[in-house]
Amino acid sequence: MSLTLPRLRAARHAGTRTGLLADCAGTLAVLLVGLACYWLFPTSLSFLTGLMALALLALSLDLVTGYGGVATLGHAALFGAGAYGAGIAAVHFGLADPLLLLLVGAVAGGLAGLVSGAVILRAHGLPQLVLSIAVVQLSVEIANKASGWTGGSDGLSGIRPSPLFGLYRFDLFGRTGFWLALAVLVLTVFILRRLVRSPFGLLVRGIRQDPVRVKAMGSPVYPVLLRLYGISGLVAGLGGAIAAVSTRVVGLDSLSFTSSAEALVMLALGGVGTIWGALVGTFVFLWFEHVVSAANPFHWLTLVGALLIAVVLFAPKGLYGSLVARGRRS
Predict the structure, then answer these.
(1) How many angstroms separate the CA atoms of 135 and 32, rounded?
(2) H/E element holding 255?
């Protein structure tokens, strides 16, 4: 026993160090890709900033769907809550500091996640999916009716963030917005990787695999998933706030069912249940859509549909997930 316990502790510490190094290496890779995009596509910084904002939406969806096993098509409600939270704070309360606007957006997204999660998590399967659709449609109607605060169908404009740290202005080229979005994305990816490796993350995976057994072991299921939904809302709200600060306008499309469906497509494209898969799926989907729509503005949706069909048929675990599975077999 005295020999076995030290070996177990050493193995656990070694696994922890290995996981930390892997997370640091993966986060560094995200940073390097962002730096490469900055130098290779200097005229597309605004597009890349929007891409990173939607990557945060895909990551938040991956938390509840890929890791928690919650079926939802209403995650854009959390993204839109963050966008409108930051926009309302800027337009109606005069808040201009971009970091504070991101904080407001994250809090708004987290609160929206707790409220919507409290409703959605009461059901399972198809009823859960229907509830999530109802939540996002209700969010659109609320934002549309509250036009005095949200601008309604005209959108909320007049967002004027002050220079970041008092030095870096948000110019038309999108440099400051790009660097802010990249910093937030890199930090969020690292935190989420540590979260899914933590005991809380392992408990969430256990609930996805067999919630009945987890409940029989004495661990709560609903409170854990509700907490996960709140964390997911924080991440989605951050994405919405970045979109609001960088574009300086918030529209009803940030809350739309289409945005929720596209986020799910990005997740399926990259691989469900992997942080890296959500990032790969977002980049591939949006970049392919951007290039194809510019090259063929009349039939680009057909080409996007063909890409999705090809991935589902030949890489059912997503691009990243299938690549990892193939590497393990070889």
Answers:
(1) 37
(2) none
- Tokens standing for 87? 């926009």
Cα–Cα distance between 179 and 172 in angstroms, integer? 14
Q: Which amino acid would we find at residue 32?
A: L
Q: What is the pLDDT along the chain (330 residues), one digit of tens a residue?
A: 444 545 535 545 545 667 788 888 889 999 999 999 999 998 889 999 999 999 999 999 999 998 998 988 989 999 999 999 999 999 999 899 999 999 999 999 999 999 999 999 998 888 899 999 999 999 999 999 988 899 888 889 889 999 988 888 888 788 899 999 999 999 999 999 999 999 999 999 999 888 888 888 888 899 999 999 999 999 999 999 999 999 999 999 899 888 898 999 899 898 888 889 899 999 999 988 888 888 777 777 788 888 888 888 888 888 888 887 777 766
Length of the chain: 330
Nearest to 79 by CA among 221, 310, 251, 206: 251
* End-to-end C-alpha distance for the chain, whole angstroms: 37
Of 228, 35, 245, 212, the C-alpha closest to 116 is: 228
SS (H, E, C) 61-73: HHHHHHHCCCCCC
Q: Cα Rg for the chain, rounded, in angstroms?
A: 20
Q: How far apart are CA 90 and CA 164, in angstroms?
A: 15
Distance in angstroms (rounded) separating the CA atoms of residues 198 and 186:
19
CA–CA distance, 218 with 226 (Å, rounded to integer)? 17
Bridge pairing between strands 249-250 and 156-157: antiparallel
